[in-house]
Design goal:
Blueprint (H helix, E strand, L loop, with lengths): L2 E3 L15 E3 L3 H14 L12 H10 L5 H14 L3 H7 L1 H7 L6 H19 L7 H5 L6 H10 L10 H9 L8 H11 L2 H17 L33
Antiparallel strand pairs: 1-2
This protein binds iron/sulfur cluster.
Length: 242
């Protein structure tokens, strides 16, 4: 039986009168899903390299429309020269641009790195403010970047919805949201609290390595028996007489 959940309240009980979206899995199945993620990877982490809140913010801001691998290569060069706001501003726009030119949108991103570093110096004593509004006021830091940073640093159990999280949430039937914000709201409503902070990483990693965009690897997916989108095995070929 399908349950219809009120999506905007965490812990909401199933209701047929206040439907905002139809959840394909039952609460028990959702608990099974996340307990499997936990068993496979109890402490998931970002694949971005960082050594401080500052280098994390810069790395996440650089990762828009770029792979973590390509960002890590660029930040290995960049952070070797400057890993604090002071050092970054002193390094200057030309050098920062040069160090990150292998990733997409590098010119704009370099400007943002210098500008956000200057703001950290001017308004925050050179420290990264661990508060959403102040983070999102930094150049190049939107809601998704702030969510990743706050989640990674254990400040807020945020679910940043990137392309992987969006796809996996839909395939697993955890959300039918049409925008990242809608998916984020629905995920926050249905994922049990103990797993919420780590859910972001699990869904990203699942989308990156198993539930890939084209040809998801349903045959090796540990969630296949729960997943409403799993690929059906090809029908058995009828026996033919020799
Ligand atoms: S069964 Fe297939 S579609 Fe479903 S989550 Fe796993 S890989 Fe994705």
């Amino acid at each position: 039986m399908r349950l219809i959940w009120v999506g905007h309240r965490r812990g909401a009980t199933p209701s047929r009168s206040h439907a905002t979206w139809e959840l394909t899995l039952t609460p028990t199945q959702i608990r099974t899903l996340f307990s499997r993620f936990e068993a496979a990877d109890p402490s998931p982490k970002t694949e971005l390299s960082y050594t401080s809140p500052y280098t994390l913010v810069v790395a996440v801001a650089l990762s828009a429309q770029a792979t973590d691998v390509s960002v890590n290569k660029a930040t290995a060069r960049l952070f070797a020269l400057a890993d604090t706001p002071e050092a970054m501003v002193a390094l200057g726009l030309e050098q920062v641009t040069d160090q990150i030119r292998t990733i997409g949108l590098f010119r704009n991103k370099a400007k943002n790195v210098i500008a956000l570093s200057q703001i950290l110096l001017d308004r925050h004593g050179g420290e990264v403010p661990l508060e959403r509004e102040a983070l999102q006021a930094l150049p190049g830091v939107g809601r998704k970047t702030a969510s990743v940073v706050l989640n990674e640093l254990g400040v807020e159990a945020a679910v940043a919805v990137d392309t992987h999280v969006f796809r996996v949430a839909h395939r697993l039937g955890l959300s039918k949201g049409k925008t990242p914000d809608a998916v984020e709201k629905q995920l926050k409503a249905v994922i049990p609290k103990p797993w919420l902070q780590r859910a972001h990483h699990w869904l990203i990693l699942h989308g990156r390595y198993v539930c890939v965009a084209r040809n998801p690897k349903c045959d090796i997916c540990p969630m296949a028996d729960l997943c409403p989108s799993r690929a059906k095995p090809p029908p058995a070929r009828p026996k033919t007489r020799a």
